[in-house]
Every structure is written in structure tokens, then in C-alpha cells.
Write a structure and sequence with these properties.
By secondary structure, this protein is mainly beta. It has one domain: Porin (Beta Barrel). The chain is built from three helices and 20 strands. Strands 2-3-4-6-7-8-9-12-13-16-17-18-19-20 form a 14-stranded antiparallel barrel. A hairpin with a 7-residue loop joins strand 19 and strand 20.
């Protein structure tokens, strides 16, 4: 039986720890659109290459496709601590920056195994804006430095459920609420103190609703009697966002004081995202998954204005997970779950008519805490962009830590 007294202590520790170790994680590309999109909400997803559209795990929360909730056997609670580091370089300079933050909280529980009804709720990061770029300028009118900073992003609060049709087809949906703060700060600092320094801040506060719809096919391995294969399924999901109502404020600060230049409310349109996947288990121990994701970022608009530095994005991922068969007397090491993944992403960023692509490799494992409770670790190394003129190359390191706890709550006796 799980000791639930430890849950509030762990939550308090992570919540208090994250702000203390926070610093800016610099990615100049994140200034475009709404920043980097978060595809992985847990260490398990990160370790498998951010795949999972067709997966339906029993002992982990998988809400990327809400139809996967049909397979839950226990009530589960998961919360995450995320670390992001970036080695940024161009033809002349390089630097490293990093941040750690609380990466979200999710709760899921089965309602009826007979009808495949499961529910989930939580709050997770959806996008991230984080960059810090400085430049020194020499001119006849005086030497000065410019600095451009961005911070913030979108978060998602969701509530969803699944249902299994009589033909063993699982469907699911979530109701999503999006909100966030995105600040863009431009500063000019003159080395000659006779000139007045200035800082301009654009503040965006978007909010709005959306939904994620999904389905997962019946077990094709059982349907076609495929020896050695099990739980072979196709998955499909669509993430839709309504127009986000965005409060905007432009503020200028100089040695003479602070002035709010303009305020207003505009609409931000984030394009929908469609995902398709295949997953199957080999010899009841080896899980393999393939995913494809597409999002038409060319259709992104802010105040009815589109942007030429955004293009349609796509992502191909492959993931592997080894789960040893549980047996009485198994040692701690014999119960560890191992993961690995690969992915290629054509990002939404288009700079100087050059598309920015990303390649990544990942891995991870789950350490058993007790029955159905694990401490998960996921690691990803990615390379994005190039050092061609006008571009930046990023070597990205992500480390996710997830505590996944489960027990039997709310289970109805089937009659």
C-alpha cells in the first residue's frame, strides 16, 4: 500500500525547489510564434522520443491521445520536474544557459473497465518562450548595447475522458483551457551616459479554450492472430485551439520615467495539430511506437497578421520500451523499465528563408518504488539549426524527473 503522506511533501519540495534553480534558457528561435512547443509531459514520453499517440499504458498517464485512458487500471498521480539546457553558438560566439521548473501535474482514474471509461485532469506546459540576446554597436552618434529578452509561454489546464465502443474502438476527448504570459523586452544602453537609455516591453496575456479529440483502434494483433505480437493499435488525435483572446500592453521605460504606450485586446490564432501513430508489443515485453505529427504554422496569426518566418511543422518519432515480466522474488534491478527513442522534427521556424530542423535521441528508465509506483527519468539530446550566417546552432539537453504513483480508488464492481 502506498504511503500517501509523502505526496504533499514531494509536491512542496518540487514547487519550492524549481524557482530557486531557475535561470534563463536561451533559444533565439523561441521568439517566433508562441515559442517552442512541448510534446512531452513526462519523463516516460521524453525517454521514448516523445511518442504515444497509439499507446494505452496501464501504469502511466497518457493523455496526449485521451482515448488511451480506457486502459487505466489504477488511480494515478504524476508530477514532473523539468531541466532544460542549451549550448548556443554561431560563427563567432557560444554560451550555455539552463533552467529548471515544475513541469506539470496530472491525475487520472478508471471509472468503468467494462465500458473503457477513464478520466484525467491536470495542468501542463504547452509552449515556452525563453531567449536572451545581446549585441554591441559602434556608431558615430555613440556606442551602445542592445539586448532582447523573451520569457513565458502557454499552459494548458485540461479535463478529459474516454469510452470504448462495442467494436473495441476507444474514443476520447478533453476540454482544454489555455492561458499564459509572454513578455518581449528590448533594451538599448548607451555607454555615453549623456544619452538616455530606454527599455520597451510588450506583454501578451492570451487565454481561451480548446479540445483534443482522439481514437485508438482495436487490437489488430488479436484480430489477425499475429503470433508474438499483442496490443497492436493505430491511434489518431486532433488538438484544436479556438482564437485566444490576448490582452496586450506596450510599456516604455527611460530615465525620465515609465509610460504605458498602448493597450488593447487582439486575437491569437494557433493552428490545430494532427497526430497519427502505431504501437505494438513484442513477446509481451518490448513496446515499439511510431508517431507522425503535423501542424500548419503558416496559418498562425496575431491580430489578423500572419508571419513569413513561420512554416508548417512536422515531426517523426520512434520509441522503444522494455518492461520485464513481473514475478515474485524479482530483485530491484530486475524490475527496472528501460526506454529509448529517436525523432526528426521540421520545426515551425523559418529564418532568412532557411528552415530550422531538429534531430534528437533520448533514453530513460523507471525505478520501482513499490507496486505500480515508479520514479521515472527521461533524457533527451537534440541538435537544432546550423551556424550558417544569420542562424544559430543549438545543442539541447533535457532532463525530466517524474514521480508516478498509483493505487486502487473509485473502482466499481462490475455486475
Amino acid at each position: 500500500m502506498m504511503n500517501y503522506k509523502i505526496i504533499p511533501l514531494l509536491l512542496m519540495l518540487i514547487t519550492l525547489l524549481a524557482p530557486e534553480i531557475y535561470s534563463q534558457s536561451s533559444s533565439p528561435y523561441s521568439r517566433l510564434g508562441i515559442g517552442d512547443i512541448n510534446f512531452a509531459y513526462s519523463a516516460r514520453k521524453l525517454g521514448m522520443g516523445q511518442v504515444g499517440v497509439a499507446e494505452s499504458p496501464e501504469n502511466f498517464i497518457s493523455f496526449y491521445n485521451p482515448a488511451a485512458l480506457f486502459h487505466l487500471k489504477r488511480t494515478r498521480i504524476e508530477f514532473n520536474l523539468d531541466y532544460h539546457g542549451s549550448f548556443l553558438s554561431d560563427n563567432n560566439t557560444s554560451n550555455y544557459s539552463a533552467k529548471a521548473e515544475f513541469g506539470g501535474f496530472t491525475l487520472a482514474f478508471p471509472i468503468s473497465s467494462r465500458y473503457g471509461i477513464g478520466s484525467a485532469a491536470g495542468i501542463v506546459p504547452f509552449s515556452n518562450v525563453s531567449y536572451d540576446v545581446e549585441n554591441s554597436v559602434q556608431s558615430s552618434s555613440g556606442n551602445y548595447q542592445t539586448a532582447y529578452k523573451g520569457r513565458g509561454g502557454l499552459s494548458k489546464l485540461f479535463l478529459g475522458s474516454s469510452y470504448k465502443l462495442p467494436i473495441d474502438l476507444s474514443i476520447g476527448a478533453t476540454l482544454d483551457y489555455y492561458f499564459g504570459n509572454i513578455d518581449y523586452i528590448s533594451t538599448i544602453t548607451f555607454l555615453d551616459q549623456s544619452n538616455a537609455n530606454a527599455q520597451y516591453t510588450k506583454e501578451y496575456r492570451p487565454k481561451g479554450i480548446g479540445t483534443t479529440l482522439g481514437l485508438i483502434s482495436p487490437d489488430l494483433a488479436g484480430l489477425f492472430n499475429l503470433d508474438g505480437l499483442s496490443d497492436m493499435r493505430l491511434g489518431l488525435s486532433y488538438n484544436y485551439l479556438s482564437e485566444l483572446r490576448t490582452d496586450t500592453v506596450l510599456t516604455s521605460r527611460t530615465t525620465l520615467g515609465t509610460d504605458t504606450v498602448t493597450t488593447g485586446i487582439v486575437n491569437m490564432k494557433v493552428p490545430g495539430r494532427i497526430s497519427a501513430g502505431l504501437s505494438f508489443t513484442l513477446n509481451k515485453k518490448y513496446l515499439l511506437s511510431l508517431d507522425y505529427v503535423f501542424q500548419a504554422w503558416k496559418n498562425f496569426s496575431f491580430n489578423d497578421r500572419t508571419f513569413r518566418n513561420l512554416r508548417n511543422a512536422s515531426k517523426i518519432s520512434a520509441g522503444f520500451e522494455y518492461t520485464p515480466q513481473q514475478a515474485l522474488g524479482s530483485s530491484f534491478w530486475e524490475q527496472i523499465i528501460w526506454r529509448a527513442g529517436l525523432s526528426f522534427e521540421q520545426t515551425q521556424y523559418l529564418v532568412n528563408s532557411e528552415g530550422v530542423n531538429q534531430y534528437s535521441v533520448s533514453g530513460g528508465f523507471s525505478l520501482p518504488l513499490s507496486i505500480a509506483n515508479t520514479l521515472d527519468l527521461g533524457l533527451q539530446y537534440a541538435v537544432r539549426g546550423t551556424t550558417d550566417p544569420g542562424l544559430f546552432k543549438e545543442n539541447i539537453l533535457k532532463l525530466y524527473l517524474t514521480v508516478s504513483l498509483g493505487d486502487i480508488w473509485f473502482i466499481r464492481e462490475e455486475k
